[in-house]
Amino acid sequence: MKLELVQSKASDLDVDAVVVLEWEGLPRPEFEKPLAAFYSSGEIKGKRLEFTLLHGLEGYKARRILIAGAGKREKFDPAALRQLAGAAVRRLDGKGISALAFVLEDGANAPEHVTAAVEGALLGAWEPDYLKTDKEEKNKPISSVTIAVPSQNATPSLEKALEKGRIIAEAANLSRDIAVEPPNLLTPLILADRARRMSEACGLSFEVLDQDRMRQLGMGALLGVAQGSAAPPALIVMRYTPEHATSTDHLGLVGKGVTFDTGGISIKPSEGMDAMKYDMAGGAAVIGAMRAIALLKPPVTVTGIVPAVENMPGSRAQRPGDIVTSFSGKTIEVLNTDAEGRLILADAITYAKQLGCTHLVDVATLTGAIVVALGHTSSGVFSNDDHLLARWMTASREAGEKMWHMPLDDEYRDQLKTVYADIQNIGTRKGGACTAAMFLKEFAGDTPWVHVDVAGTAWLDDAKPFLAKGPAGVPLGSLVNLALNWL
Ligand code: BES
Ligand code: ZN
Ligand code: ZN
Questions:
Q1: pLDDT digit string (tens) for 415-459?
Q2: Is 2 an annotated catalytic residue?
Q3: Which residues line ligand 1 (CB under 6 A)?
Q4: Mean predicted confidence (pLDDT) in 393-414
Q5: Centre of ligand 2 from the C-alpha of residue 340, in Å
Q6: In a 10 Å sphere around its CB, with 0-12 CB exposed, 13-18 middle and 19+ buried, how is residue 177 labelled?
Q7: Closest ligand 1 atom, CA of 435?
Q8: Which helix (H) or strand (E) is 71 found in, with range?
Q9: What are 436's strand-pairing partners?
Q10: pTM of the entire predicted model
Q11: How many other C-beta atoms are found inside a 10 Å radius of the C-beta of residue 422?
């Protein structure tokens, strides 16, 4: 998609459609006369995500004007603009529009607004239809988006903001491209290949540990999950080294990469099992985030690690009751083979620490319990370090990705006690997201660590006005902002 920043009035933009903002309770003076009937009938109120499409409005070069309700002016922030831009693009889909312009006037054209508008447009245009062969049914993406600001406002900082929005949204769409691939086509080795191609294209150093290497290292927790599948596992490692690091900090991003989760021998019910193709969404977010980090070049060392496995109940699958020795040396009693995410993450977290990571964030579709707790609105956040937690919450707020801080009290550890091994991999039914996080904490140890459970937020069961159904790209924006804000 072509992206451009211009200084222009709405009326001078020669494109297929111009999107202008309409604040609630503040009718635009230039529309009050020509659109009087729209206002008096209550068709234009300026409510959030209310759209009115007009053709051939006098005095405008553009063929169409889309009046986009922006809600109350005092409540309008970059996150609201991101959604509005996405919804506008989706609202215009199928109308034969190829060139589109957004007019951002005062109050909506700070650098963060420009970034958000670009992100919203690119994210909104993405569709999960890459395997449809009927061209007629596919959506017809807009080919150019222009951001128009009043003349005095176009500055190099806005150009940079536009570029940042493009990089983050393209990275999120790459992560969605990967997450949407069905599990027969996206095996652990193919996932590793996707990460390799991305790394080579943007100059990250790249490495995959294969099954033999993981055996040598003693990654028994990860290998135990993988052994029930004919598809071999992979531990994907992507490294970004800044030219001038401002500290000796080393950020590790770890993403759960279960390409399909049947539950293993503790098999899941068949109803809805197809959803478990998105059990690698955390891994896909880390791969996408590493791309954006490689291009935006924050001054901190970042390593992305994705343990990739398929959880199947094959004849060599691990059994409930098996005891495995993890890479850390701790023994784990596997009482439920469906609690596999924490097993592969345990070894990946230990590996990240061995590579020298001083701060860790893991992202995982880890538990059904977090969906019960928070629904599909917020991701659950757990941490052993208040300072890193605060940084994470700030980064996520800027990204417009909702996060909720969940508890990690020592009491949850009691549920993981077993006489047969150092730890068991499940607790009771109650507080399942917290015991899962507690299990991971055991492996993070003293290293500052944030765990993000995205089981409820990584995938949309239904489309939103501003986003197609399917993978949402969450929490890629937070991961990237965390690295960009690092000092
Ligand atoms: N991948 C699932 C968690 C999940 C559930 C993700 C719903 C997305 C939507 C995870 O591996 C799992 O199966 N967790 C179990 C843990 C239980 C056995 C302790 C769960 O949440 O039921
Ligand atoms: Zn599972
Ligand atoms: Zn899983």
A1: 999 999 999 999 999 999 999 999 999 999 999 999 999 999 999
A2: no
A3: 261, 279, 336, 338-341, 365-369, 371, 426, 432, 455
A4: 98
A5: 5
A6: middle
A7: 19
A8: strand 64-71
A9: none
A10: 0.98
A11: 17
